[in-house]
């Protein structure tokens, strides 16, 4: 069965979103959420979930290069838990240590959505490798 999947690159100021499906295993940028407060952020995310109806959500989990956690690791985990609680969809965390290295600069809206697509692509690639 083909599943539509959303990917998230969580940031304090912006949240990048990407989408893809399990048939093609290709991720593409979808949107950047720039809402000021949590209620507005989750409203915008909820609108996109209602429109596209993804089967699961993937959230990038940042860590130090050595794998150690830092403040944003915990924030991203909390965001993932909030997504699960609000939308009752499966949420998986993906190690995003190397996704930002693929993008030269992580400033600006286009970069946020592109970072989300790299995180989601990593999820697809990891699952393709496990299924063969």
Descriptive keywords:
globular; 132 residues; five-stranded mixed sheet
Question: Can you describe what's shown?
Answer:
It holds the Pfam family RuvX. It is an enzyme of class 3 (hydrolase). Belongs to the YqgF HJR family. This protein is an alpha/beta fold and 132 residues long. It has helices at 38-52, 71-87, 99-102, 109-130; strands spanning 4-10, 15-21, 27-33, 56-61, 91-95. The protein has a five-stranded mixed sheet with strand order 3-2-1-4-5, with helices on both faces. Helix 2 links the parallel strand 4 and strand 5 (91-95). The longest helix has 22 residues, at 109-130. The protein is globular.
Write the layout of secondary structure elements.
Layout (H helix, E strand, L loop, with lengths): L3 E7 L4 E7 L5 E7 L4 H15 L3 E6 L9 H17 L3 E5 L3 H4 L6 H22 L2
Parallel strand pairs: 1-4, 4-5
Antiparallel strand pairs: 1-2, 2-3
């Amino acid at each position: 069965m083909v599943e539509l999947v959303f990917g998230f690159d969580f940031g304090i100021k912006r949240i990048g979103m990407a989408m893809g499906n399990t048939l093609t295993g290709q991720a593409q940028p979808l949107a950047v959420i720039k809402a000021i407060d949590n209620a507005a952020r989750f409203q915008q995310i909820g609108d996109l979930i209602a429109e596209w109806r993804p089967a699961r959500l993937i959230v990038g989990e940042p860590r130090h290069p050595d794998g150690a956690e830092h403040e944003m690791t915990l924030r991203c985990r909390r965001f993932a838990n909030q997504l699960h609680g609000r939308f009752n969809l499966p949420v998986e965390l993906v190690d995003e240590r190397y996704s930002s290295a693929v993008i030269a600069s992580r400033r600006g809206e286009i970069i946020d959505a592109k970072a989300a697509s790299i995180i989601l692509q990593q999820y697809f690639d990891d699952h393709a490798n496990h299924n063969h």
